[in-house]
Design a protein that fits this description.
Number of strands: 0
CATH topology: YutG-like
InterPro entries: PgpA-like_sf, Put_PGPase, YutG/PgpA
Distance between the termini: 63 Å
CATH class: Mainly Alpha
Protein name: Phosphatidylglycerophosphatase A
Helix content: over 70%
Strand content: under 5%
Shape: globular
CATH architecture: Orthogonal Bundle
Organism: Schinkia azotoformans LMG 9581
Number of helices: 9
Structural class: mainly alpha
Pfam families: PgpA
Radius of gyration: 18 Å
GO molecular function, one term: phosphatidylglycerophosphatase activity
């Protein structure tokens, strides 16, 4: 018989793993804010924190984080078989599986998330840059891409919500004119 894992346990494990690896929701939200602020003058950091928290509730994201961080941790302990150990430990440029997992996780949030993920993977800002440059030691081959994925998803959520709000406001203005 297989053990069924409750959603809240997966969510809690995901958040705990991120924090253990030095990544907070606020770190991620700050990048989301930087990405979306030019398009949304009323955006607050609190809006971005909320969006990140909502993204972290998605099973696809949680599973990607659990797998990626576990692989990073195994590489830190030298527990992967060669040549995978050396590839992950050195974050070899041609590896690409770390980006593939990050990209797979953003697909549920549409093309805006995909293009934002590509931008963040290329430009590495905020905590993503710190993780990529291995500041503080440790292996973060997967984590930097996973954080970029979370940022891209949260930014996409905000962009889509803003569009919905704009459309409702337009409809309301039209209704006011008709009255």
């Amino acid at each position: 018989m297989t053990k069924r894992v409750h959603s809240r346990d997966v969510q809690e494990a995901t958040k705990n793993l991120l924090e253990e690896r030095g990544v907070t929701v606020l770190d991620i939200a700050e990048i989301v804010y930087e990405m979306q602020r030019p398009f949304n003058g009323g955006l607050t950091l609190e809006d971005c924190v909320f969006s990140v928290e909502r993204v972290l509730r998605k099973r696809e994201i949680q599973h990607a984080i659990l797998v990626g961080i576990e692989l990073d941790r195994l590489a830190e302990r030298g527990q992967l078989s060669e040549p995978l150990q050396s590839i992950v430990e050195s974050d070899e440029g041609l590896f690409g599986i770390d980006e593939t997992i990050g990209l797979g996780a953003v697909l549920t949030y549409g093309s805006i998330a995909v293009t934002t993920y590509g931008y963040l993977d290329k430009n590495k800002i905020g905590i993503i840059k710190k993780l990529d440059t291995k500041g503080g030691g440790g292996v973060h081959t997967f984590l930097d891409d996973l954080v970029a994925s979370i940022c891209a998803c949260a930014a996409s959520r905000i962009a889509h919500q803003m569009r919905d709000i704009e459309e409702v406001e337009e409809e309301m203005a039209f209704v006011d004119i008709d009255l």
